[in-house]
Amino acid sequence: MCQQTPAARVAPQWVEWMERWPAPSDVATAPTADVLRAWDRLGYPRRALRLQEAARAVVEVHGGEVPCGEADLMALPGVGRYTAAAVRAFGFGLRSLVLDTNIRRVLARIDGGVEFPVAHETAAERRRAWEFVPEDDGEAALWSVSAMELGALVCTAKSPRCEECPVADACAWLAAGRPAWDGPERRVQAWEGTDRQCRGRIMAALRGHGAVRLADVAWPDGGQLEACAASLVADGLAVRTDVGLTLP
Questions:
Q1: Can you name the CATH fold of 7-79?
Q2: What would the DSSP string read from start to end of 16-52?
Q3: Hey, CA dihedral for 138, 63, 13, 99, is it positive or negative?
Q4: Mean pLDDT score, 84-99
Q5: Is the distance from CB of 39 to CB of 47 less than 8 angstroms?
Q6: CATH topology of domain 101-175
Q7: Which DSSP category does 212 fall into?
Q8: Hey, where are the domains in the chain?
Q9: pLDDT of residue 185
Q10: What pLDDT was estimated at residue 97?
């Protein structure tokens, strides 16, 4: 759920989800339509499908117990290096490199002396980041969550509160006078009028009504609406009916 979505937005859905489906076996056997409704407005709903597929794999391959090995985790649908590392650190208390946006920014400032990290993480960045992770499993897991919270609450992207930072004395960026980012322009992801917004509009209608006619979905561009509907069907998020679309 926290892939590409802030934890504050995830929290209410996560609580409801865990109350309803506390074990992988519960998610695995739930109707897919219910899973998509429970995902609600978290965005990127394909993650909900991948999560259910992962739950089914956990049941079928691992006897219903989430594995702790990196290779086993990354073999699950929808689980990449970051998610596997997060599960190992926060679910099992194991040493791993949870290199999310917040931690990358914290390390770029403290160690690199720059306002932001480069757009995409590099092998050199990962090697250097590993040097900050304590060797002890418990301390490493604590470091990961602490660095993540530091980036989310104090060392923020737009308004860093350096006067409140517990590691300000060790920050190369602060020592250099907080120089402005002079790398490639940081692109802000568009939303208004995009296919993502259009798909979201259709999914909201499906979650609310179960089945919809495209003509009843408020969207100004009929061609884009039809194309987005087709993409939802292709992604397994919707099914065509004689009159429109329904959840799978």
A1: Endonuclease III; domain 1 (1.10.340)
A2: HHHHH--SHHHHHHS-HHHHHHHHTTSS-THHHHHHH
A3: positive
A4: 96
A5: yes
A6: Endonuclease Iii, domain 2 (1.10.1670)
A7: E
A8: 7-79, 101-175, 195-246
A9: 80
A10: 97
